[in-house]
What we know:
CATH superfamily: phage-related protein like domain
Largest sheet: 6 strands, mixed
Strand order of the largest sheet: 5-12-9-6-8-7
CATH class: Alpha Beta
Helix content: 25-40%
Radius of gyration: 24 Å
Number of helices: 9
Shape: flat
Distance between the termini: 23 Å
Order of helices and strands: HHHEEEEHHEHEHHEEEHEEE
CATH topology: phage-related protein like fold
Low-confidence stretches: 1-7, 212-227
Amino acid sequence: MTTPITVGGFSDNPTATVEEILGAPKVLNQDIYDYIKEYDVVADLFTDAGPNSGSIAFTENVAQFSEDGLADVAEFAEIPTTRVQTGEKKVIFAQKTGRALEISYEQRDDNKLYDVQNAISQLKNRVVRQNSRSLLRSVQESDIPDMAAAAAWGATGGDPVSETAAAIDSFAEQLDIDGNEAALIFEPDTLVLPSGMLGAFSSSDSVWKHYAAGTLAPDNAAVTGKVYDKFMGLNVVIPKWWPVKDALVCQAKDLAFYSDSRPLTVSGPIDVPTNEYFRTQVTQRRIVGVHNPTAGIWIKGVKA
């Protein structure tokens, strides 16, 4: 960023002092909290499984249909039974993460406002980037199927429309047409694109045909890294700091879940006189799990 992100409540006051920032902990902490939550792509996309006590046991790929359906039953005959179909049982343990920001007595006494504002914005950006990478690691380590793009979508021969359509169609292939049966059937609703893909994606003529009024304009919410208008029936998401070259088509709420044993917490500033600094800290304890890998498909190599 070329312009520092200033603290909410002080951003329109260039004469604000570091002492004033430290003297308004609710304003400082709320600004950090709101920024991190705004770019919490995990909470935007996935199912909230509620709180946990340090671990979560879940079952992967639980069948949506019973093994046996309704049967013809003669009068007085015993009605046939069926049993639950379960999947692979897994356990994920929560990991606490945190970081404390130090603001020295000297920064306060000398009113080093520029340094303090930069330090606050750097902490916010770092937490958002780490959360995005944690999400990416969870989905990459799961057994989500994949297909290859013929070329990067911003290059000659790139075809985001037909390849997205092929990814969508692959969900229907889970159905056994002859037997008209399937253990799992999902309907994709989300397209997650790599960071920096807005230009390559929106410049494609085939993509623009799906937008009536230029909804990929620079002032659209998409540019901030959030969700914007649908493309081929899919919500399009470009997370901030999503360091991967692949697109993900998925039914987001059924693909993965998250559970917070300790929700995002911002506390401080705490005066630490022994070291002569003030301490503001960010902590959280979260689990992210992919419980239905077949609710998604990677399109590999969409970004050069």
